[in-house]
């Protein structure tokens, strides 16, 4: 799937200037914690390309993104607004916080995020807490707790008795689940 991305003229001018100043025509659209309430879209300088990249060309610069993110950034609107301090780039993605039905071959990170959002975080939210994927290494999942889970004396018990158990029930390929939060 190719995501629909809309750039205002001011955003296109700004990104063109940034790419020219950096001497790098490739910019990457990324999404932190896709499909969760913590989702945010961002643009960075692209250093590496992959076969999974989808590319949108805009004159003298390109916007790249991983095809696995297309569902989340479809409808992305990018605008640049000037102010007294210079300006700000604004990214608005209407689907970024929505977890779609994932295909069987979806990234493990997306599958874990879907389980956390659908089964774990609603329970943790009752105590003003939550958990998100920090990273995936092989079949090992590293999580970060937030909200009232920070500093909670029951965080380890919650991880083992609830979060890890729930993840492994839904995703048996997971070998280990670890908390990397500094409580």
Automatic annotation (TrEMBL):
Transmembrane segments: none annotated. One of its GO terms (biological process) is iron-sulfur cluster assembly. GO terms for molecular function: iron ion binding; iron-sulfur cluster binding. Residues 112-177 form the NIF system FeS cluster assembly NifU C-terminal domain. Residues 4-97 form the Core domain. Gene3D superfamilies: Fe-S cluster assembly (FSCA) (3.30.300.130), HesB-like domain (2.60.300.12). This is NifU family protein.
């Amino acid at each position: 799937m190719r995501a629909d991305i809309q750039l205002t003229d001011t955003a296109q001018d700004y990104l063109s200037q940034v790419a020219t100043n950096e001497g790098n025509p490739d910019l990457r659209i990324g999404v932190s914690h896709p499909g969760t309430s913590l989702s945010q879209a961002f643009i960075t300088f692209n250093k590496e390309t992959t076969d999974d990249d989808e590319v949108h060309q805009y004159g003298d610069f390109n916007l790249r993104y991983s095809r696995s993110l297309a569902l989340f950034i479809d409808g992305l609107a990018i605008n640049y607004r000037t102010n007294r301090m210079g300006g700000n780039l604004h990214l608005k993605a209407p689907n970024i916080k929505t977890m779609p039905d994932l295909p069987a071959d979806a990234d493990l990170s997306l599958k874990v995020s879907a389980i956390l959002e659908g089964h774990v975080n609603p329970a943790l939210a009752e105590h003003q807490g939550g958990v998100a994927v920090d990273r995936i290494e092989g079949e090992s999942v590293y999580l970060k707790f937030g909200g009232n889970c920070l500093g909670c004396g029951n965080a380890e018990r919650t991880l083992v008795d609830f979060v890890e158990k729930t993840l492994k029930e839904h995703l048996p390929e997971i070998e280990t689940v670890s908390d990397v939060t500094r409580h």
